[in-house]
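Cross-posted from the bioinformatics board.
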Amino acid sequence: MDLMNQVTPAVLFMAALGILLATVIAVAVRRLYVYEDPRIDEVEEMLPAANCGACGYPGCRAFAEATVKGEVPPSKCSVNTAEDNQLIADYLGVSVGESEKIVARLACAGGTHVARMRARYAGLNTCAAAVMAGGGGKACAWGCLGLGDCDTSCTFDAIHMNEFGLPVVDEDKCTACNDCVVACPLDLFSLQPISHKLWVACKNLEEGEQALAECEVACNACGRCSVDAPEGLIEIRNNLAVIDYSRNHLATPVPIQRCPTGAIVWIENKKTIKGAEAKRIIRKTPLPLQT
Amino acid sequence: MSSGLITKLNPARLFRPTFSHGVHPEENKHFTSGKPIERHAFPPELNLLLSQNAGKPSVPIVHAGQEVVRGEPIARADGFMSVPLHAPATGVIKRIDLVPTAKGPRKPAIILKVYPGESQEILYGAPRDVDSMSPGEIIQAIQDAGLVGLGGAAFPTHVKLSPPPEHKVDTILINGCECEPYLTTDHRIMIEQADDLVRGTQIIMRAMGAERAIIGTEDNKPDAARTLSRALPADGSISVKMVRTKYPQGAEKMLAKALVNREIPSGNYPSSVGMGVFNVATTSQIGALIPWRRGVIERVVTVTGAGIEKRGNFLVPIGTPLRFILERLGYKGSAKYLIMGGPMMGDTVASLDVPITKGCGGIVVFRPEDLQQRNGEGELPCISCGKCVDACPMHLNPCQLGKLARKGRYLEMDEYHLFDCFECGCCHYVCPSGIPLVQYFRISKLMNRELKAAGK
């Protein structure tokens, strides 16, 4: 029974060690217990797990903690549908909160069929690279380069490049996560509540004639929209119409009507409406290169 | 062509100092190296960009409708990192407006309408005795002259001349390498403006309190070295040294290594190892302008490349639009590449309305048929061949940096010393996969800075 004599102490030792460590763990569980609201897990389950950061919190978990604490209403999650947010509100017994849908909007309408090119860019196929190589080939130094950095950056599949090389935002899918705003090297994207229906789709700061030579739908700073709008709503600043959204409640489709180029538009129900006097663009082909 | 061959076969060149790594692009300097500097005509309108230099743009001190004489200051310096701007021609200020720049974005510029019947004599300025001026006064005078690095970087010269007090400068290096292919601006300046160059070197030595100066030139310009050595002062404080022809010998870190065997530590200025490095064009302008209280109003520009009929070296007023120069010199109206600066480090220009700035030493026009085309456009995958590692004069690992940049891991690139890259383009030049590494690095530097700023 030599074998038995050798094995028994080992078994006993392991057993004693096991009991000791189990006691340590048992004590630690009681002593070091941190209470966490179980509702946080539940709320996190109901969130989309997109971790996009559009709500301003670093990820869905942090947002769930904030909603449970009552810091923010559930409606601040722009990815969830209104019904899902209502579920969270019902679960927590709070009001869902008022929140307006926010979408990304592009301040440029110069597709290849209306905006002139002065050179052909053939380098690395991203906007960030083109901006650094002589600013890309577009005649307008402020306009969209159409190489789709925003499209690549969008994790919600909400941005698609159209046939004229301009990104189109799918307002249903857009969660206002800010990725495209960061990706665009020309800062053309911005997040806008959908109640901002009056919109200037141009950033060209060139004076009238020069701006039109670069792009047919540029703002030529004629000032008609500014005159037709309630006082203080639209101002011409540095050859560009600028809307003061603090007076957005005064906005109507009237100022867009006399715009000769259609640079100022009215966006309602996902439709972009140009004014009655805006020139019609029927061309579908790209404009020739103009040096 | 034949002189280039002789230089290459000359056994003496093997003993000339140089730096390790680098590349040997085809020089193509023979098109213009023998052509004397010619004065170019004044255009009807000059577009004088307010941001000619690295640092802060100048502030206009003229208004629309004001008449100015050639050489008169029209914009003042905005602080220390800025220089004033002088009128390159007699005329009238039309307006202050946005004009296209070589880098892309439109920037404010003073538009000057040149009087056509004017003699364009420089009426501004008065002689002064430089020898009785204190170093501080010389540095102030150099700022007032609007001098910036005319070699291309356009860094304000007076800032270079004022190193931190703990740095003791003993040696001045005058950079006449001109390692960029095609360009012959500095070559012609060394031959034709040797006296101004020596005068400028002496002024810089006085301003920085240095005992000696070395003018360094590549051994493909023996005629320049000969002319310069004849113009040197008798006291032996200035010498001319030839270095091996290799790109990028003209970078200040490479030149310091080759001429005085000193390494400039990463992220430091040459003054930290007791040196000041100045380009020959800048130095010769110092010698020509400072004794006369004048400002920089024109510069030598090499216009070359197969897309140009009349190639040569021209004295061009600052602010001349590219279109005016090209049309007068027989530009055929289409180019695959239009480069301001040298073909290795210059900026591809996307508009013919870009004006000449103080930093622009050359215009190179390539037609599509002049360029060696790779089969299949675009970039191929990196095969980790290591050619870029062998070419990088800074001994970086462009291959690894490129892979990180492609994945968007910009912050990790710090570990591979991204900011030691000075964008010479050697890695892209040798890459068999045609990966535009420098373009990647430029984006990376921008993104890296943005990410760090956002992280703070």
